[in-house]
Amino acid sequence: MLNWMLLALESNRVIELRIAKLMRGGKAAQREALRIVSEKMLAAAKTGTSLMAGASADQIVEQYRRKVAANVKRLSQKRTRKRKSR
Hints:
Keywords: Plasmid. The chain is an all-alpha fold. It is built from 3 helices and no strands.
């Protein structure tokens, strides 16, 4: 049960970070939108495969938590981009 609650809390952070990125717009937002869709499709496929292989619900939730943690880390990094001088 703890894993489930932690997943819910951690997922909220990813949602917050993604919304902020999408609101900024531009190419980075487009890439993130595509990434969201592809991640969901891959996660569903991996979950199905894991379930067929006999994984427990807690093991599935742990898989999601690892992916969520990676997303938080990636989205939390400050990215500096060089601006073109005029």
